[in-house]
Amino acid sequence: MKILIINGPNLNMLGKRDKATYGRKTLAEIDSVVKKQGEKLDAEITSFQSNSEGALVDFIQQQSSSADGIIINPGALTHYGFSLRDALADSGLPIIEVHLSNIYAREEWRAKSVIAPIAKGQISGLGWQGYIVALQALLAELKGENI
């Protein structure tokens, strides 16, 4: 199975930005751990990050026909990325939304996600481990197991 891992704006700065909120691991380190877990679970992981909503939309449109599911951390686009939301919905793929921090325990505006209504589920506040939980849940869903 092929899983797309998509990361939005500012996630390229992980390991440098607000470590108390986002942790110490870099995005490259997280990608490496997720790819290793994917290998153990017989899943091919393709990762992509951009600070541009248009580039994220292009990636989804180009890759979704050969993928089985999407894990996305939309970053700030969580709250207003309507073209990203539409591209995800148009993909027809199961989606798990991931956030490193607990978006519900932060500023009020962070608690609104335009992605959540089209996602199978959302994982928030588990740090980098949330990607692993999302991968396990998405693969279970794809195999017809209830999550």
Description of the molecule:
By secondary structure, the chain is an alpha/beta fold. It has a single domain, classed as 3-Layer(aba) Sandwich (Rossmann fold), CATH 3.40.50.9100. It is 36% helix and 18% strand. A five-stranded parallel sheet has the order 2-1-3-4-5, with helices on both faces. The protein starts with a strand and ends in a 5-residue tail after the last helix.
Keywords:
36% helix; alpha/beta; 147 residues
Order of helices and strands: EHHEHEHEEH
Q: Which structural class fits the helix and strand makeup?
A: alpha/beta
Mean pLDDT value: 93
The CATH architecture comes to: 3-Layer(aba) Sandwich
Summarize it.
This protein is α/β, with parallel strands linked by helices. It has five helices and five strands; from the N terminus they run βααβαβαββα. The chain has helices at 19-22, 27-40, 53-63, 82-91, 129-142, and strands at residues 2-7, 44-49, 69-73, 95-99, 121-124.
Secondary structure: elements and pairs:
Elements: E1 2-7, H1 19-22, H2 27-40, E2 44-49, H3 53-63, E3 69-73, H4 82-91, E4 95-99, E5 121-124, H5 129-142
Parallel strand pairs: 1-2, 1-3, 3-4, 4-5
